[in-house]
Write a structure and sequence with these properties.
binds zinc ion, 10-stranded antiparallel beta sheet, 20 strands, mainly beta, 41% strand, Glucose Permease (Domain IIA), globular, Immunoglobulin-like
Length: 269
Amino acid sequence: MPGFVSAFPQSNPVPGGIVLLPLNNNHIANSARYNKKKLAVVNNGKTQYLLVGLSLNTKPGAHHVKIRNNLGEIRKLKFRVKPKTYKAQHLTIKNKRKVNPYEKDMTRILSEKKRKTKARKSWTPEITQTNFTVPVDGRISSIFGLRRFFNDQARRPHSGLDIAAPQGTPIKAVESGTVIESGNFFFSGNMIYLDHGQGLISLYAHMHTISVKPGDKIEKGQLIGTVGETGRVTGPHLHLAIIANQTLVDPLLFLPQLSKKAAEYYKSE
Ligand SMILES: [Zn+2]
């Protein structure tokens, strides 16, 4: 699409990374599974790949994907996962209720967790394009996988990429897709889930405004809302998360065009 700098994802076989496994003509692409979860098939030029999302809990070493061939036999496509250690990050949250929710917040948090799980498990057979464009023009303020401490209390690792920008900065869809969930969430603030097909999902959190609704078909680069500081935050930014085979993975691998900004982030650490 003209006007957007788009890029194909990069394979990085580490916990929290992705692996792109090339397929041949004998493989029945849509039969592939990793840890029993269906995988997306993506195209780059004439080559078809399986896109495998690796959770942060993945053990380094030998792994495989199961796939059927056109004789009906089950084949293993092997790959190796390399170790990766993620740094710790300590953050101070002024609104203590977002770190230690009240008893009465728990009902809300649990029902939101169900909605999140449902969205994460969404599967549609549509073939997606995976040439993502950068959703917000801003500075990288936090990266995926950091072991997090809020007010010195250990919490889940950072599940996305943070791009800091002033409140009201436009947020654009990374690829074409369908809105499958949106609303105001206790921790994530105003959030949208965009389904790109075959279990590939992008998620946008802490938004100021949301300008789309579930069911809407979205074009790549379309305005979907604005940057805000809703939910558990230290300032205005977009939290972008990417899900593949129900697994949260490093968004930077889908946005190699941000490598220069990522280098600036590492330098400032
Ligand atoms: Zn974040």
